[in-house]
Specification:
about 200 residues, mainly alpha, Endonuclease III, domain 1, 10 helices, globular
Length: about 200
C-alpha cells in the first residue's frame, strides 16, 4: 500500500523499497539479481531499471525489448549489477517466462498456489532461479508479504528459521545489519559460500 511502512526495507532508499513492496515484478527481479553483489545493491537495481524504462518496466514491456536495448539500460551508469550485460539477459529471459507462463504477472507465480512445494517448483522453473534462490524467495514471500501456503517452512528450509541469514529476514534496518553480520561471520569462518555485504 503506497505510503505505508515498508515490509521489506532492504535498500536504504524509501523509493526503491516502495517499488519492491508495491510491484511484484520488481521484487522478483531483485531476487534474480541477488548474487555476487551485496543484497541491498541487488534489490535497489529494479528501481534503477524502472527509472530508465518508465512504463516499459513490466514483464510484457521488458519481454518486448530488443536485447541490445535492455543491455544498454542495465549497463548505464550506475550499472544495475556487477555483471550488467549478463544480468540483462537473465532479466529478459525472466520477463519472457512471466509473459509466456504466467500471463505477464509476476504475482501469478504465487497466486492460488496449492502448497509450499508447488511454489518452490514454480520458482525453480523461472530462468535464473536455482534451488537456494527459490527457497529464499519462498521464505521472503512468507516472512515479508504473508504469502504462506501450507508447507512453506519445509519448502524454504533452512531459510524459514529465525537465523538472520538472507533477504527473507530483513524486516527492518536492524534486521538488515544482523543479516550482514551473519554473512560476514560465515565468510570469515569459511563455512558457507555467501555473497558480499
Amino acid at each position: 500500500m503506497p505510503g505505508s511502512p515498508s515490509r521489506f526495507p532492504i535498500t536504504g532508499d524509501p523509493a526503491a523499497d516502495g517499488l519492491l513492496n508495491d510491484d511484484p515484478f520488481a521484487l522478483v527481479v531483485g531476487m534474480l539479481l541477488d548474487q555476487q553483489v551485496p543484497i541491498e545493491v541487488a534489490f535497489a537495481a529494479p528501481a534503477k531499471l524502472a527509472d530508465r524504462l518508465g512504463e516499459r518496466f513490466s514483464p510484457a514491456g521488458v519481454a518486448a525489448m530488443a536485447e541490445d536495448e535492455l543491455v544498454a539500460a542495465c549497463c548505464a551508469r550506475p550499472a544495475v549489477h556487477r555483471y550488467p550485460a549478463a544480468m540483462a539477459g537473465r532479466i529478459g529471459a525472466l520477463a519472457r517466462a512471466l509473459v509466456e507462463d504466467h500471463g505477464g504477472r509476476a504475482d501469478a507465480v504465487w497466486a492460488d498456489v496449492g502448497d509450499g512445494e508447488e511454489l518452490r517448483r514454480r520458482l525453480l522453473a523461472l530462468p535464473g532461479f536455482g534451488d537456494e534462490k527459490a527457497r529464499i524467495f519462498v521464505a521472503l514471500l512468507a516472512k515479508r508479504f504473508a504469502v504462506r501456503p501450507s508447507g512453506w517452512e519445509a519448502a524454504s528450509a533452512p531459510f524459514s528459521d529465525d537465523q538472520p541469514r538472507s533477504a527473507a529476514d530483513v524486516g527492518s534496518r536492524a534486521d538488515f545489519e544482523r543479516v550482514k553480520a551473519w554473512k560476514r561471520a560465515m565468510r570469515s569462518r569459511g563455512l558457507a559460500k555467501v555473497d558480499p555485504v
